[in-house]
């Protein structure tokens, strides 16, 4: 099944070039099925690029998924107000609705204290709202650290050097449904300074650390019921995303390290190799299936009443 997005969203044309079918809203309205309702709170400055990345991964599912793009009150730096007005809804306008799933993206805020972020009060409101209005929420990178801090009081620490590159991960909890179909090792991009120590995560009884490595620490976590899923990396990244970040930092005079395991022969003059897309597709597909579709009520008005059981049952 395709996913449904607003008519004329730029992601439609971009993904058609990759032979990915994205259904415009007017076509989806003719299908008599109960589609999944997934909201995306996009905190990234370049919202259009992130839209393409997430729609790509959400498209690889037999479920029809209706996407609703959500924004907070703060002004995006690199996305036009016209695009936001055409395709996004303010959180205050949708907070009376229920959703099967919610995705909250990362943001380039890893070096700031949460309380110093201008939209932190409203983001906290979203995190609390999701507990009663969403079956499962997927937090990416900075949003994962922010949600762990909000829900469990565990604050991330700042690494001495930026974690940037494509890293190998292992399955630490192979029985987790979200890991079904995964190889023993898999690759995923990281681009962050923040890190939550594993020993602190393991002290929280509601958290399950599902995968990671000695090099990157915890990568994939969830709570016992699967209503909160935390990913500290970027499985949605395009082939050139880390390259663009590397060039940006070079031009800013930051002397960045070359992203690990990214360029052939570690040579930035050679085109980067993409080794994580299959993992990204499987991860998002499993989340939609096991954490959302198989848990959510048919009648979305009953989301807050839904019994949240152990996701390993």
Name its key features.
Rossmann fold, 12 strands, 313 residues, 29% helix, globular, 25% strand
Identify the CATH class of the largest domain: Alpha Beta
* Apparent shape: globular
Provide the structure class: alpha/beta
What are the segments in which pLDDT stays under 50 over at least 5 consecutive residues?
27-32
By CATH, the topology of the largest domain is: Rossmann fold
What is the averaged pLDDT score? 89
How many distinct domains? 2
Order of helices and strands: EHEHEHEHEHEHEHEEHEEEHH
**Any idea what the CATH architecture of the largest domain is?**
3-Layer(aba) Sandwich
Straight-line N-to-C gap: 27 Å
Beta-strand residue fraction: 25-35%
Number of helices, where a helix is a run of at least 4 consecutive DSSP H or I residues: 10
Radius of gyration: 19 Å
For the largest beta-sheet, the strand count, sense and barrel status come to: 12 strands, mixed
Supply the CATH superfamily name of the largest domain. Answer: Class I glutamine amidotransferase (GATase) domain
Number of strands: 12
Classify the helix fraction into a percent range: 25-40%
InterPro entries: Class_I_gatase-like (IPR029062), HST_MetA (IPR005697), MetA_family (IPR033752)
Keywords: Acyltransferase, Amino-acid biosynthesis, Cytoplasm, Methionine biosynthesis, Transferase
Family: Belongs to the MetA family.
Main location: cytoplasm
């Amino acid at each position: 099944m395709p996913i449904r997005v607003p008519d004329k969203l730029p992601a439609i044309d971009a993904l058609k070039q990759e032979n990915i079918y994205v259904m415009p809203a007017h076509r989806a309205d003719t299908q008599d099925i109960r589609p999944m309702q997934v909201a995306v709170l996009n905190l990234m400055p370049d919202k259009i690029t992130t839209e393409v990345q997430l729609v790509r991964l959400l498209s690889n599912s037999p479920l029809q998924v209706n996407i609703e793009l959500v924004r907070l009150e703060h002004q995006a730096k690199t996305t036009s107000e016209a695009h936001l007005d055409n395709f996004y809804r303010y959180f205050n306008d949708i907070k009376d609705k229920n959703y099967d799933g919610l995705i909250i993206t990362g943001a380039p805020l890893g070096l700031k204290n949460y309380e110093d972020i201008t939209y932190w009060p409203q983001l906290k409101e979203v995190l609390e709202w999701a507990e009663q209005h969403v079956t499962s929420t997927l937090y990416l990178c900075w949003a994962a650290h922010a949600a762990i801090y909000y829900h469990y009081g565990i604050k991330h620490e700042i690494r001495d050097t930026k974690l940037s590159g494509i890293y190998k991960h292992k399955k630490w909890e192979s029985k987790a449904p979200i890991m079904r179909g995964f190889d023993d090792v898999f690759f995923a991009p990281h681009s962050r300074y923040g890190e939550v120590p594993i020993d602190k995560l393991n002290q929280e009884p509601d958290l399950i650390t599902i995968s990671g490595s000695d090099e990157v620490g915890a990568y994939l976590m969830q709570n016992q019921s699967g209503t909160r899923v935390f990913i500290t990396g970027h499985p949605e990244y395009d082939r050139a995303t880390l390259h663009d970040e590397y060039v940006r930092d070079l031009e800013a005079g930051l002397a960045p390290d070359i992203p690990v395991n990214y360029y052939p022969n570690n040579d930035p003059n050679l085109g980067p190799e993409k080794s994580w897309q299959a993992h990204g597709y499987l991860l998002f597909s499993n989340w939609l299936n096991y954490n959302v579709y198989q848990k959510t009520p048919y009648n979305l008005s009953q989301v807050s009443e839904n019994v949240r059981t152990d996701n390993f049952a």
